[in-house]
Amino acid sequence: MTPSTGRSSVAAALLATLLGLTDGNVTCVCEGSHCLQSTCRGAWCLVAAVRPRDDPPYITKNCGRNNYLETCLGFPEEVIALRCCHGHMCNQNITLDLPQGPGPSGGPPPSEQLPLILGPGLALVALLVLGALACWRLGWRRHRREKRLLQSRELGESSLILKTSDSGDSLLGDLLDSDCTTGSGSGLPFLVQRTVARQITLAECVGKGRYGEVWRGLWHGENVAVKIFSSRDEQSWFRETEIYNTVLLRHDNILGFIASDMTSRSSSTQLWLITHFHEHGSLFDFLQRSALEPATALQLALSAACGLVHLHVEIFGTQGKPAIAHRDLKSRNVLVKSNLQCCIADLGLAVMHSQTSDYLDLGHNPRVGTKRYMAPEVLDEQIRTDCFESYKRTDVWAFGLVLWEIARRTMVNGMVEEYRPPFFDLVPSDPSFEDMKKVVCVDQQRPTIHNRLAADPLLSVLVKTMRECWYPNPSSRLTALRIKKTLKKLSPTPEKPKVAY
Ligand code: ADE
Questions:
Q1: Which uninterrupted H or E stretch holds 224?
Q2: Between the CA of residue 261 and those of 158, 199, 238, 422, what are the distances in Å?
Q3: Ligand 1-lining residues (CB < 6 angstroms)
Q4: What's the CATH number for 175-277?
Q5: pTM
Q6: Within the chain, which residues score under 50 in pLDDT?
Q7: Cα(331)–Cα(300) distance, rounded to whole angstroms?
Q8: Phi-psi region of 480 (alpha: psi -120 to 50; beta: other; left: phi over 0)
Q9: What string of H, E and C letters represents the secondary structure of 54-121?
Q10: Fold that domain 283-500 belongs to in CATH
Q11: What CA–CA distances, in Å, run from 134 to 68, 205, 287?
């Protein structure tokens, strides 16, 4: 796939999701590469002039939904002019002048540049005003402390500036806690997401792999994590962005989402996912460095189980969420927070299910899970791919392997083992599908468990739990909720707050 095809496929999918596929009550003209048909249905209609960084500007027509901000950040490139209208096919006869922007072939003479600078500037100022109104309507003014959050200022090409509060609190925390989110999802309004992303400076690379890179970045002095997706993994960016922006996923044990951003840079597309940064890194990294006390091992295991339960459960009602199965659970995709609780990361392969609407959303990602962590029914291709429960059961298999990784690094009677990945003694370092299938399905092998663990009351429960995640029959395995309840019984109960009557 060429970079530009990649870019347009992601852009088209993003636009289709944000705009085209949302039923509303007016029919509008749809024009542009994102259109599935010549008309679409939405809450209102629009005509936009879009200027990609490296390509000439173009005009597109589409349907709009929710609010103007969402729509405008739905465009992967800069929206430089936007006209909206309400009514059946009302965008049919609207025309927009296409500005002769300073494109790749050089800009217009300086005397003609002022209106071109003012045009986008005014459009952005209008967007800021609309953004402020949208936030105000979402109940922003109810929260006094949030008054200081968003101060926009015109600078250069009139970009939205998010200023740090002088209170010393986390401005990001304030922003994310405010009511001013995209509505249904976990994210900020799209224009704010883009603005945050573009104000980040990358400080150091903390991880590199086939997926791309993870950087520690700084946003107004606060650490953030920036995952930069490799171009071949654009579908993971798209899926994760989609899930975080459509599902309310704020939970202590799920990696906190801040923003997603797509930029075109010299004929290739950069895809960023910005999340909370966790100093300890992944559980995989953490276990290399640290031997654990049994109580710490239990806390890591229980908190990860809480994250998995939250993903797996469908929550009904307006603040609800669909059930989600992760499909690539492993110690590299679990992060360790400063309080030694885990949170689950990487929703790029996740599938969603809603019982209420009997809807199974498998996504379109050609990626598969990590072979080392694949359940037997995935390896022997017997998994029922049309059944959501199947995916949760493969997560439980992988979760058992993560428990095993934790248990190996736990000290009992002064003994501990080196960190090793699951099946390290049975398959080569980058095992093939066939290597794994032979070990897990044909020979029915399971990770070896050191007998020191039987001497500790907590660890022996952990061992029993992991074994019950590894039954060959997926329906015999524990559920995430059962794992959580079992581990919770072992943990010291937090002291109940004393209430004075
Ligand atoms: N490695 C991968 N994601 C990370 C994050 N959010 N924080 C720290 N290290 C990471």
A1: strand 222-229
A2: 19, 12, 10, 35
A3: 206-207, 214, 225, 255, 275-278, 281-282, 335, 345
A4: 3.30.200.20
A5: 0.71
A6: 1-23, 66-76, 102-119, 134-167
A7: 11
A8: alpha
A9: CCCCEEEEEEECCCHHHHHHHCCCEEEEEEEECCCCCCCCCCCCCCCCCECCECCCHHHHHHHHHHHH
A10: Transferase(Phosphotransferase); domain 1 (1.10.510)
A11: 9, 36, 45
pLDDT digits (tens, 9 = 90+) for 354-411: 998 888 999 999 999 999 999 999 999 999 999 999 999 999 999 999 999 999 999 9
Fold of 1-97: CD59 (2.10.60)
Q: What is the dihedral of CA 328, 401, 476, 439, to 10 degrees?
A: 90
Ligand 1 atom at minimum distance from 275 CA? 6
What's the pLDDT at 348?
A: 97
If you take atom 10 of ligand 1, which residue's CA is the nearest one?
281
In the beta sheet, which residues pair with residue 204? Answer: 216
| Nearest alpha carbon to residue 234 among 390, 1, 48, 58 | 1
DSSP secondary structure letters along 239-256: HHHHHHHHS----TTBPP
**Total number of residues shown for the chain:** 501
